[in-house]
Write a structure and sequence with these properties.
alpha+beta; three-stranded antiparallel beta sheet; 5 helices; single chain
């Protein structure tokens, strides 16, 4: 039985720019140049955020010549969604449970 959600993954997705990157990659595989154009972020800032997403396992990279393309790992997002769905199910069944105060 799961007791909590993946906190490392939550932290990786908590930043607004990283969440925007994930939303963009949900539509298509993009290189850093495309992501700079779409987000308006500086390339170095964007690269730092992409590193966090890579280390959290949210995105995969695909080298293509001198460019690196990024693609979303839908299995990771689906797993996180499942963890939240489990929490919601437990909350529904526990709605009438109330621990007595000492």
């Amino acid at each position: 039985m799961m007791t909590s959600v993946d906190t490392d993954l939550i932290r990786a997705l908590a930043d607004p720019l990283r969440l925007q990157i994930v939303a963009l990659l949900a539509h298509e595989t993009l290189c850093t140049t495309h992501l700079v154009e779409e987000t308006g972020a500086k390339q170095t800032n964007l690269s730092n955020h992409l590193k966090v997403l890579r280390e959290a396992g949210v995105v995969d990279t695909e080298p293509c010549g001198r460019f690196t393309y990024y693609k979303l790992r839908p299995d990771v997002i689906a797993s996180l969604a499942g963890q939240f769905a489990d929490l919601a199910d437990r909350a529904r069944t526990a709605a009438d449970n109330k621990r007595a105060c000492p």
